[in-house]
Amino acid sequence: MIPEQPSPKSEPPTVWNSLTYTGWGRARSATGQIARPERQSVLASAVAQRPAPAFGLRRSYGDVALNDGGNSYDMTRLDRVLEFGTDSGLVTVEAGMPIGDLARLTAPKGWLPAVMPGTGFATVGGCIANDVHGKNHHTQGSFGQHVTEITLLQGETSCTITPDSGAIWLATLGGLGQTGVIAKATLQLMPCPGEMMRLTERRIENLDAFLRAFDDSQTPYTVGWIDGTATGDQLGRGILEESELVAGVDSSGEGTVSVPMNAPGWALSSPIVRLFNAAYLRKVPTGGRTSVKPIHKVLFPLDALHDWNRLYGKRGFNQFQCVLPTDRVDVLRAMLEKIAASHLCSPLAVLKKMGPGRGGYLSFPMEGYTLAIDVPNRDGSQELIAELTQMTQDADGRIYFAKDGVADAAQIMGMYPDLDLWAETVNAADPTRAFETDLVRRLNLRGKGA
């Protein structure tokens, strides 16, 4: 860890505005004073005077990026590429850079972020703070494993950390922003042949067939869409997507549309979801299909529909995501049965097989199966998620903090074996708890007292 001092140069006063804001699920909100700096020097000066947590485009679903009643830094204007080695694939970017924008800049030059989540609107700072994973986790591990350097602002001082920095590095990757404001980072990109991907889609008849398909798959990017309403012999049916990077130039254009308003409550009622899921399954022919598409249309399919979270209405939604050990398929099956019986699942349900790769103490990934479902925020939804969370804990699995807005502190006990190491490190780095957020307080991740 290399200590640094903020620039002594005088900066204009930071403007703070009161704002009510939410995570992507919109089921939890916060009100506080928000600053939106435009330069690294302004950010460093502001954090030195008023240390507070930071957020990006708030694509995490619950309250991990919220600080109700406190101050926060909006990093979205700090979105520049600072240095890019086209021979080495090393790129240094500000933390507010959206990962999809970075991919669009680097792919034409033969490089791509090695790991990207399901949305291109996640910022680099958010990807580090949540140590995100993608459809290629089984081959490339987690995002943090491809980061080589991070600049942290910790109040009156800043520091540059690397994988050789020990505990502070491990506490920062997946550490929910608790070691300080991530100002910028250097990433090791991976070579790519072009801007396109070959995508193969095929129908999968049930959960057992899905698990066999994951075991047999040889492609670097793999994900399954699950029909969360299916029961009986069709439990766990869905569509397997396998993809790989190929040469080619993206000339498709963006072609995005927006959801203009909150959808009415009946739009995601159980009968509508069942009909939609049946139709969505049939979009793939019985024999499957293969196509070549731009990278962003394969890895970020929902980004083409801006503000799609409005489809859940003004009450918003919660997402539940867990990972279960590979030998607890019985629990995965029981979860799908409970979800189908609840009549609460939306069309968005995803299943993936993960490898062991993880970057930090609180990184979500572990070897096993990860299930993610969106649940409209209506009667019974939080009870369903609480039950699924308890099933996860009982099965020695873990939930993904970037998605959670429902769990309580008792339910996450034992999920993260390095939690005590993480808490000890972040409490030493931030003894006044200036960077604490709503989720960290709700789940008591840092323990009682300073």
Automatic annotation (TrEMBL):
<feature type="domain" description="FAD-binding PCMH-type">
    <location>
        <begin position="27"/>
        <end position="192"/>
    </location>
</feature>
<dbReference type="Pfam" id="PF01565">
    <property type="entry name" value="FAD_binding_4"/>
</dbReference>
<dbReference type="GO" id="GO:0016899">
    <property type="term" value="F:oxidoreductase activity, acting on the CH-OH group of donors, oxygen as acceptor"/>
</dbReference>
<dbReference type="InterPro" id="IPR006094">
    <property type="entry name" value="Oxid_FAD_bind_N"/>
</dbReference>
<dbReference type="InterPro" id="IPR016169">
    <property type="entry name" value="FAD-bd_PCMH_sub2"/>
</dbReference>
<keyword id="KW-0274">FAD</keyword>
<keyword id="KW-0285">Flavoprotein</keyword>
<protein>
    <submittedName>
        <fullName>FAD-linked oxidase</fullName>
    </submittedName>
</protein>
<dbReference type="InterPro" id="IPR010031">
    <property type="entry name" value="FAD_lactone_oxidase-like"/>
</dbReference>
<dbReference type="InterPro" id="IPR036318">
    <property type="entry name" value="FAD-bd_PCMH-like_sf"/>
</dbReference>
<dbReference type="GO" id="GO:0071949">
    <property type="term" value="F:FAD binding"/>
</dbReference>
<dbReference type="InterPro" id="IPR016166">
    <property type="entry name" value="FAD-bd_PCMH"/>
</dbReference>
